[in-house]
Amino acid sequence: MWEWISANNGSLALFLSLMTAGSALYHYLSIKKSEERDRRFANYHKLVEDLNSTGSNVDKQLVIIFELRNFPEYYPATIRLLNRSLEKWQLMKSMATSINPHSLIDEAKLTLSFIRRKQNERSYLCTPEEDRL
């Protein structure tokens, strides 16, 4: 056994150093992935909070609705949120309030359409050309 180790010590040292480097790389990447997940969670919830705040102007809300497309991990919640918001905006539209939610309704419908298409796609080539990045 010791003879084999002494005969192959260079290979063993290389193998052990690669295993150590691989383990460190895996640990680093898992920490970065966790940090990215936490950052996206905070960003999504900040967008939702800003969308529902009463002081938000229509332009800011339009941008927020569009940006919700960039969070595929939250698509089910986004669909429910936008459907509830659509009901509220359509009610505001029928009551003829000073706020005209017509553009919000249009953008929400476009975003819901985009999300449904993304959920039904199978590969990049199935994505409509206008949705490809």
Largest pleated sheet: none
How many strands appear in the DSSP assignment?
A: 0
**If you average the pLDDT, what whole number results?**
87
Q: DSSP strand (E) fraction?
A: under 5%
Name the helicity range: over 70%
Write down the oligomeric state.
Answer: single chain
Global structural class? mainly alpha
| SSE pattern, N- to C-terminal | HHHHH
| End-to-end distance | 57 Å
Shape: elongated
What would you say about this model in short?
With 133 residues, the chain is mostly helical. It is built from 5 helices and no strands. It has a domain at 38-127.
What descriptive keywords fit this protein?
133 residues; mainly alpha; 5 helices; elongated
Notes on the structure:
- The chain has a domain at 38-127.
- The chain is built from five helices and no strands.
- It has helices at 2-7, 9-52, 58-67, 75-94, 102-120.
Helix and strand layout, with pairings?
Layout: H1 2-7, H2 9-52, H3 58-67, H4 75-94, H5 102-120
Helix pairs in contact: 2-3, 3-5, 4-5
